[in-house]
Amino acid sequence: MRQLFAILYRLRFFIVFFLLESIAMGLILRNYSYHRSVFVNSASFITGSIYEQFSSVRDYMYLREENRLLNEENALLKTQLARKPKEDQVDTTSQKYRYIPARIINNNYSKQHNFLTLDVGSRVGVIPDLGVVNSKGIIGVVRNVSNRYATVISILNVNSKINVRLKKSSHFGTMIWDGKDYTKTQIIDMPRQASIVKGDTVVTSGKSAIFPEGIPVGVINEVRFEDKQYKKVGVTLFNDMTSISNVQVIYNRDKKEQQEIEKATDNE
Amino acid sequence: MNEIVKISLTFVLLVLLQVLVFNNISLLGYISPMPYILWVLFFPLRRNKFLYLLGAFFIGLTIDFFSNSGGIHAMVCVFIAYIRLSVLKLLFQKKDVDFSSFSIRTMPTIKLTYYTIILVVIHHFIVFSLEFFEFSKIGNILKYTFTTSLLTLFLCAIGISLFIKKSK
Question: How much is the ipTM here?
Answer without folding.
Answer: 0.83
